[in-house]
């Protein structure tokens, strides 16, 4: 019997949601709360992304619940001195949904904090995944997640927040949201 559950869990039947859009809406709700609390970004940015998720909900919910490692960003991938892949750290559970989500998180981090976006282009190409409107919508959702960390305390540490970094993040969000709106096929 196939179990179509979505979200973060060790096993599919433990995943919290019955549709992939619910995972995106949960991320947006968390970002909204944190952004409102810190007051460093306009909460209206969340509204703009949520509007697009809502408008495309039917297509988003057609995504299969594929299991994937959700935090394989550059900070969690170990490479050798020669640049060869060596391993992954911070693997405590899986996510069930669109396996492009961690690539979108990686692109969000690279756009926000600097780094070669070509890394993500190669990832998508080698995995046979598209850099389409939906991928850019995921990147927008995840940029909001990174933005929401600014001015908040996690594990007893306040995330440093620099106005230049915040401006870069907002420009990256606007760029990706524009692509998500324009590149719908």
From TrEMBL:
**A Pfam family of this chain:** APH
Query: What superkingdom does the record give?
Result: Bacteria
Source organism: Rhizobium rhizogenes NBRC 13257
- Transmembrane region(s): none
Q: What is this protein called?
A: Aminoglycoside phosphotransferase domain-containing protein
Kindly list any coiled-coil regions of this protein.
none
Domain Aminoglycoside phosphotransferase, which positions?
Answer: 68-133
